[in-house]
Amino acid sequence: MSQLIAQLPALQVVVPLLGAVLVAFCRGGRTAYFVSLLVSLLMPVVSGLLLWQAIIAGPISYHLGGWQPPWGIEYHIDVFNGLVLMMVSAVGALVMPFAWRSVADEIDEDKQAWFYCMYLLCLTGLLGIAATGDAFNAFVFLEISSLSAYVLIALGRDRRALLAAFRYLIMGTIGATFYVIGIGLLYVVTGSLNIVDIGSRIAGAAAVYPHAVIAALAFITVGLGLKLALFPLHVWLPNAYTYAPSVVTAFMAATATKVAIYLLARFAFGVFGQAFDFRTLPVADIILVLSVAAMFVAAFVAISETDLKRMLAYSSVSQIGYITLGIGIANKPGLTGSIVHLVNHAMMKGALFLALGAVVYRIGSARLSDLAGIGRRMPWTMTAFTIAGFGLIGTPGTVGFISKWYLVAGAFAAGQWVLVFLIVGSSLLALVYVGRAVEVIWFRDTGPAAARATDPPPSMLAPILLLMAAVVYFGVETSLTAGIAERAAALLLGGLP
Amino acid sequence: MEAVHTLINHYNYVITIFLMVGGLYIVIARGNMVKKLVGLSIFQTSVYLLFISPAKILGGTAPILDPAYSVYSNPLPHVLILTAIVVGVATIALGLALTVRINEAYGTIDEDEVLEKDPEP
Amino acid sequence: MKFDLILRIGTKLILPFILLFALYVQFHGDYGPGGGFQAGVIAAAMVILMSLTFGINTAQRVAPRAMVERMVPLGVLIYAGTGVAGLLMGRNFLDYSVLGHGAHARELGIFLVEAGVLVTVAGTMCSLYYAFVERGR
């Protein structure tokens, strides 16, 4: 048994990979689905054990191939990436029961096995990015998850999904290549690829080659900025989320950008933070300004959208702005707010996009005009939608409030009063677009399109309700999410306030 | 004079930068999807150069252990770039497959014409 | 017509040597430039050249579509299987030292994973070509 526990970091990544290979041999959608379901339900167990071990016993270091780091690849799991692993696998597990009917409805019969193969490869990639401690290994997993994401998005019904996937491919590949350039520059000046090892050598390297280290920081920030949809590099996101199949949107919105943010935080604080105090770098100010721009501009565009999926996509860009705001503030409460919003936003957006997926399953459209009065026809689904929407605004009692609380505390601690007002102000914008959707859903007469709707079958309803319960529960009982996030922030900042 | 000397000594980096910027320009400036993919490919090739050219240690021999030699070239960047090349191949193949599908769906592979047919909301 | 004949006979003569060269590159990856990916691409180039000169039906007699589509996950299975062998013997994932003694164990490990890479890459390149060609038919 202890043998198994010791091998868990490798199993976290190998099991979905083997699952993907097995599914690739399958011909039918049913076998493929059951393998994916089994793997997806197993992953939170592994992540939970890893996170628990990281909390109790400290960081886990797993040597791939038996080779010592820094010569070999190391999987390094501490509370920060343990939390990210838990989030990704939990979302993957919740999305799978939903996928049974949603995929059968939205994707052709002969493509379903390949869909599940790509889904498992995407899961492998995302878990791999979070688990690994080697910079180039992170690039490989980043590209595995991205390439399978392009395929998943292109499987959408609308032909605009193809162009959306193509544009995402171009921008995502440029982003990943910029990241590799940054890694190359770091390798040339420090001689190592292991993240912890680069962190220990970078102070010496920065003394001899300051320009190379700053250039590496710039390339890595822009590269990962393209992947995490930092304003103004977010242009691929609205189309990709709108035209992808519902399951894919729910999964991607909750995980793909978050893992890129994890990687950025890991490099900004764990690597470059050892050479410079991140707060003193101009990069922190740039990220701050871009985050505020994201929060406001994306929320304004969301207000004017008529398709709910597109509105939520722009809302995602806005919420990512909150997370990067915490990274830009770069003090302990700010970074705690950032990390906890990473997890909370996954819960909220997961619930919102799954609820919309149920609507699409029932009436085939997510346009606001078609959803008039649908609250009375699909009460449970729309209750979950409303509560998750309140979470986006930051209502006390939901997880959104917890994240905003920590971010405001971080802004206070940094003496940035303007930021406090901006955070509150953008929450009012969220109130406008969520309020508009809630008004149409509950307070209008049932339109012809919405009349056909009923609540979705239990396999689809259960994940939605579970996520809704999580939005409320973790908004009240914060020791798990915020407690771990505080420890992660303390770990990243390494003792700075 | 100092600058020209540096440029000539580090000619590998000059070529890398030239290819990188050229590739990025093609991606941004051309609307034809195949040309965009070609630009992406050139951009990725510059990154391979960026990794491999510092791997050659001056005076180093091939990285196979032999008692007669003490300085070896660095084999690690070559391994990294093999991986990166495979990733690049997969990306270009996927991009071309998407281009074929877009051509079947819209009848054109120019991004501007595709956007005309399906205007962005 | 004359040029067509030269192409067909030339291709017929050279095809087996392409495959032989692919295997040479595969097995000499330890001592010179080579290894799984390069060898896989050369092997696939053999099938593609045959398809260009003699037509897709002839090529699919040699490398049937179902077979190359199955080769893709099979290679990954071989690679991951070598890694899991290390797990099953009580060591870490991808630890080759369980396969034998000393340096020979690592040599065998690399041999197996490169074989997996060869199978996957050759299968992928052939399926890519078939997929693009089938689009036009």
Secondary-structure topology with pairs:
The complex is a heterotrimer of chains A (497), B (121) and C (137).
Chain A: H1 2-6, H2 8-25, H3 29-57, E1 60-63, E2 74-77, H4 79-106, H5 112-131, H6 135-154, H7 160-190, H8 195-208, H9 210-228, H10 236-243, H11 246-271, H12 282-303, H13 308-329, H14 332-363, H15 374-377, H16 379-393, H17 399-413, H18 417-443, H19 458-476, H20 481-493
Chain B: H1 2-9, H2 11-29, H3 33-52, H4 76-106, H5 111-117
Helix pairs in contact in B: 1-2, 2-3, 3-4
Chain C: H1 2-27, H2 36-54, H3 56-62, H4 65-88, H5 102-136
Number of strands of chain B: 0
In round numbers, the mean pLDDT of chain B is 91
Q: What is the CA-based Rg of chain B, rounded?
A: 20 Å
- Uncertain spans of chain B: none
Share of residues in helices of chain B: over 70%
Say what the CATH topology of chain B is. Helix Hairpins
| Tally of DSSP β-strands of chain A | 2
CATH class of chain B: Mainly Alpha
- The DSSP helix count of chain A reads 20
Q: Shape of chain B, please? A: elongated
Judging from the principal axes of the Cα atoms, what is the shape of chain A? globular
User: Topology as H/E string of chain A?
Assistant: HHHEEHHHHHHHHHHHHHHHHH
Number of domains of chain B: 1
Key traits:
heterotrimer, A: 497 residues, mainly alpha, two-stranded antiparallel ribbon, 2 strands, 78% helix, C: 137 residues, elongated
Descriptive notes:
- The complex is a heterotrimer of chains A (497), B (121) and C (137).
- Chain A has helices spanning 2-6, 8-25, 29-57, 79-106, 112-131, 135-154, 160-190, 195-208, 210-228, 236-243, 246-271, 282-303, 308-329, 332-363, 374-377, 379-393, 399-413, 417-443, 458-476, 481-493, and strands spanning 60-63, 74-77.
- By secondary structure, chain A is mainly alpha-helical.
- Chain B is mostly helical.
- Chain B has one domain: Helix Hairpins.
- Chain A binds chain B through residues 136, 139-140, 143, 147, 150-151, 154, 159-160, 162-163, 165-166, 169-170, 173-174, 176-177, 180-181, 184, 187-188, 193, 239, 305-307, 310, and chain B through 20, 24, 27, 33, 36, 40, 43-44, 47, 50-51, 54, 77, 80, 83-84, 87, 90-91, 94-95, 98-99, 101-102, 105-106, 111, 114-115, 118, 120-121.
